[in-house]
Amino acid sequence: ARRYGLFDYPDALRKVHEALQIRMSQADRDCAQIRTHENELIEEIAEAIVPADEVSGGAKAAKVAEFLDRHLGESRDAELKPGFKQDIAEIDRICVAMHRRDFVKATTEQRSQVLARISRNEAKPKADAEFAFGTVKWLVTFAYYKSKIGIHDDLKYQGNVLLDEFLGVDPSRT
Predict the structure, then answer these.
(1) How far from 164 is each of 43, 71, 161, 167, CA to CA, in Å?
(2) Helices 80-99 and 64-74, packing angle to 10 deg
(3) What are phi and psi of 6, to 5 degrees?
(4) What is the dihedral of CA 90, 92, 96, 97, to 10 degrees?
């Protein structure tokens, strides 16, 4: 192996990488903000909002719940985590009130009915569940479109493209 001054850089970099992986793994465990039932609930609500289709995987494939867990742990907004937990609990409560079963155990049709009810005033929410839906939907789509599946598979983002010439905008179409 080639030596670089006092250090064997490839070996030193490997050791640093291993140490960081261990610390990151521990940080992920320490960062866990969502309990098991809440995680299942988020996965199911998120998948109902952004389901898999023929174009791309859904929220589960994009690991939206995992992203949100990390996001909640890293956020400086003291109200985000408790507010989000209250919002998913409100959605679960509505499902129990409508169908006598929690969202995780509800059928696809029952989940659709719950989402239809709580999204009916999405533009101007009035009830707690309508506000909850708006917040949860925003966070789910935020997380989804931060993922490789959301960006590349769903949006078909190809990266920045260098244009030889900017053709402008047709003002008659604006």
Answers:
(1) 44, 39, 10, 9
(2) 140
(3) -85, -15
(4) 20
CB 111 within 8 A of CB 95: yes
Separation of alpha carbons 68 and 164, rounded Å: 39
Backbone angles phi, psi at 51, to 5 degrees: -80, 160
Q: Which amino acid is at 20?
A: L
Q: Give pLDDT tens digits for 41-88.
A: 999 999 999 999 999 999 999 999 999 988 888 888 889 888 999 999
Measured on CA atoms in the order 104, 77, 27, 67, is the torsion positive or negative?
A: positive
Task: Express each pLDDT in 155-166 by its tens digit.
Answer: 888 777 777 777
Q: Is 23 helix (H, G, I), strand (E, B) or coil?
A: helix
Contact in structure between 92 and 41 (CB atoms under 8 Å): yes
Task: Report the sign of the C-alpha dihedral through residues 27, 81, 75, 129, in that order.
Answer: positive
Residues 6+ apart with CB under 8 A from 32: 69, 73
Q: Which 3 state secondary structure label does DSSP give 140?
A: helix
Alpha carbon distances (Å) from 17 to 10, 11, 12, 23, 159: 10, 10, 9, 10, 27
**For the whole model, what pTM was predicted?**
0.72
